[in-house]
Design a protein that fits this description.
This protein is α+β, with helices and mostly antiparallel strands. The protein contains 14 helices and eleven strands. The two termini are about 30 Å apart.
Length: about 375
């Protein structure tokens, strides 16, 4: 489980809009605890008080008011304890406002001497300390503090929520819902881990690849190709998962064709054309043929110029075009004629080979080799 760190709340010693954030955190925390805020935190000389709060002690037939002086100290960044010197004149400060108790709200532990001081004062008025262990426990375990947790420790909250999100699903058969199936809940806490920044990571590389393939497929189905542009290549399992999802549900051919026609990055273009082998449509076939005749030699040469281990452009096209259906045959025939007229003999032979294969039996989806480029 992700550990909570109160240092996520900025150091009050640093000037700026966040310098009073721990005092505001203390206010909202105490509100969630059931206290009533009588005096808010404010900058400037405060006479040794950060907050004044009130609670009501309810008896059988009456209730009694108890006013507390609250002193807030955020020393978690330095790691030092709250000392007696940090809390001078406690008695005078409590009596000055007519309080019946002193409450220390600290992000680090009180020193031994200060703890002894509090015990010595307990005969005169109530003393209470909300230290880091108590604060973190309430944030972690008490639902009443959830909004405070989310507002002031957003990175830890995000990571903790990911750990507690259950995966619920019901079982289906080929004929529909299994009448005996019950909703199943799976704990994902072991699947997702958070780093010190609160970012979520999947420690199992195989599961990471499967999730990556699913996320990519979902984005592409909705016409969002931007995420694909962030990849230079895929690990084999990512491509396998993406291929299965795309081949099963398909992509909108017009969107993919438009991306192929306008792509400027040579590696991104190769990925798009490889996907074109899975999306069998005349629009996609046309876009691939167009890029082959217009930019084929340039795209084939540019990878040699940057000295990268990348699948040759002609090989990507050679794998993708034969995956098209017979509806693409007129497109291939037209571009074969164009290639002949322009004297593009390499491209003409490639298109003729693809046409022969399309007229035969459908091929398996293309698989990018391992040597494209590392992600």
């Amino acid at each position: 489980m992700t550990a909570l760190d109160l240092r996520e709340i900025p150091n009050p010693g640093i000037a700026g809009q966040t310098r009073d954030l721990f005092e505001l955190f203390a206010r909202d925390f105490l509100l969630a605890s059931g206290y009533e805020i009588l005096e808010e935190p404010a900058r400037g000389p405060d006479g040794g008080k950060d907050l004044i709060i009130r609670e009501w002690l309810k008896g059988v037939v009456s209730r009694e008011e108890r006013k507390w002086l609250v002193s807030v100290k955020h020393f978690a960044h330095s790691g030092r304890s709250v000392s007696v010197r940090d809390e001078p004149n406690i008695v005078e400060r409590v009596e000055q406002i007519g309080a019946q108790g002193f409450l220390g709200f600290y992000s680090s532990v009180p020193s031994v001497a200060l703890a002894e001081r509090f015990r010595g004062l307990s005969s005169r008025f109530c003393t209470e300390v909300y230290g880091p262990a108590r604060i973190i426990y309430e944030l972690s375990e008490n639902e009443a503090f959830r909004h405070v947790f989310a507002q002031y420790l957003p990175r830890a909250y995000k990571a903790r929520e990911a750990e507690r999100i259950p995966l619920r699903f019901t079982l289906f058969t080929e004929n529909g819902l299994d009448s005996n199936a019950e909703e199943v809940e799976v704990d994902l806490s072991s699947m997702f881990l958070a780093d010190e920044t609160g970012s979520l990571r999947i420690p199992d590389s195989d599961i990471e690849d499967i999730v990556c393939g699913c996320v990519l497929a979902s984005a592409l189905r909705s016409g969002n190709f931007a995420v694909l542009g962030r990849f230079a290549s895929f690990r084999p399992l990512v491509w396998k998962q993406l291929s299965a999802l795309v081949a099963d549900a398909g992509l909108e051919g017009g969107s993919l064709a438009s991306e192929i026609e306008t792509a400027t990055d040579p590696i991104y273009l190769r990925l798009l054309i490889a996907l074109g082998g899975l999306v069998r449509s005349e629009e996609v076939a046309t876009a691939i043929c167009k890029r082959l005749l217009v930019d084929g030699r340039f795209e084939h040469r540019v990878i040699r110029d940057i000295n990268a281990t990348v699948m040759p452009f002609y090989d990507v096209v050679r794998d993708a075009l034969p995956q098209q259906t017979e509806k693409a045959c007129p497109v291939l025939e037209a571009y074969i004629a164009t290639a002949r007229a322009k004297g593009k003999w390499t491209e003409k032979r490639l298109l003729e080979s693809a046409l022969r294969k399309v007229r035969q039996e459908p091929q398996n989806p293309p698989t990018p080799p391992d040597g494209w480029r590392r992600r």
